[in-house]
Design brief:
It is built from eight helices and 21 strands. The chain is of the alpha/beta class. The protein has three domains: 45 residues, no CATH class; 240 residues, Aldolase class I (TIM Barrel); 45 residues, no CATH class. The strands form six sheets. It has an eight-stranded mixed beta sheet. The chain has a three-stranded antiparallel beta sheet with strand order 1-6-5, with no helix packed on it.
Length: 341
């Protein structure tokens, strides 16, 4: 157990966890919604510090991050648990648990940095489950990563509290956030979340206050979030609050976990989302889980020439000069100057 950083004592026995936007009020010897923060004798502890469920070397494009240190490898770490309860969770075996399982691999912050460097990775990503489930560990590791010139990435549902974001903000380079829909009903039905607009506010804070590189993913689920109101709402919000050059990944749902009765998303639906994004003014929209689709390649929105060609996770940088198109000089919002240099 590792003492939590953002705990508030409410009485002689009750504590509030302020790591995420649930702000759970936790009774003695009980845990919060996620199961990974527990009140032990009026001290809040994280149960998951450095206990990894998953370790891998991935292409950064797998996160997916298409405009961030393109073509590099990232050391990926997953923990246990989640503060969402998504019915379509792809990693439910590690996220839908209420306790740390025996399969954990103990990896200290120093070990994570050493393993990243040994495996020729340019950075570290906390992914596979929600990173805030072991927030103190990600913070300690991020600090050490920056000292070792490695970039840092959160692959997140975006429900981190503003206080937690401000603690890790100086050490976090990329915020790859899910925007699952754009309605109260969608978030309640899919993830059991009510106050979902805090996700939007935190993403804006990551970009504007901490200058993080932000990319957005929406997994499009037939009959749940594939309507024009939600998809158009997401696209318009990205354009107005994060900027028209923010990448939007619209990905194909496949039946999984507790949603097995719906079909996989049609390519036509994804292409319609693409058109809605273009209508909102977005410059970079990518179709995910459709290998070989033309939208995998980044094209300069000014001159129309391809600058980064992709097929699956194979990347060919063919037209970039730092963050700009080498043909016409237009800035294309690529982050290539943080860590790993």
């Amino acid at each position: 157990m590792h003492e939590a950083l953002l705990a508030e004592k409410l009485s002689s026995s009750i504590v509030r966890c302020n790591i995420c936007q649930w702000r759970c009020t936790i009774q003695p010897e009980k845990s919060g919604v996620c199961g990974m923060y527990r009140n032990v004798k009026c001290i809040l502890y994280n149960l998951n510090y450095g206990l990894a469920s998953s370790v891998a070397v991935d292409p950064i494009e797998k996160k997916p991050l298409f405009h961030f240190h393109q073509g590099t490898q990232v050391f990926s770490l997953g923990g246990w648990g989640c503060n969402f309860h998504c019915q379509d969770c792809q990693n439910w075996e590690i996220s839908m648990v209420k306790d740390v399982l025996k399969e954990s691999e103990k990896i200290s912050p120093q070990m994570a940095v050493d393993l990243a460097k040994q495996n020729h990775c340019r950075g570290i990503a906390w992914t596979y489950n929600e990173p805030s489930m072991w927030f103190e560990y990600t913070l300690d590791t991020a600090k050490l990563a920056k000292q070792n010139n490695l970039y840092t990435v959160y692959v997140t549902n975006g429900y981190l509290s503003p206080e937690a974001l401000d603690l890790i903000g100086p050490y976090l380079d990329a915020w790859r956030v899910d925007i699952k829909g754009f309605s109260d009903k969608l978030y309640q039905d899919l993830a059991k979340i009510k106050n979902w607009r805090g996700i939007l506010e935190t993403a804006q804070r990551a970009k504007t206050k901490w200058n993080m590189h932000v990319e957005v993913v929406t997994n499009i689920i037939p009959t749940m979030n594939d309507d024009d109101a939600q998809l158009g709402g997401i696209a318009e919000w990205i354009a107005s609050k994060l900027g028209t050059e923010t990448p939007w990944h619209v990905t194909r749902f496949h039946p999984n976990y507790m949603i097995s009765d719906l079909p996989a998303t049609s390519v036509a639906t994804l292409e319609h989302a693409y058109e809605l994004g273009r209508k909102a003014g977005l410059k970079f929209i990518y179709l995910g889980n459709v290998p070989g689709h033309a939208t995998e390649t980044t094209v300069c929105f000014n001159c129309g020439k391809p600058v980064v060609e992709r097929v699956g996770y194979q990347t060919n940088v063919c037209g970039l000069n730092e963050s700009s198109c080498k043909y016409c000089g237009t800035d294309l919002n690529f982050t290539v100057n943080r860590g790993g240099k």
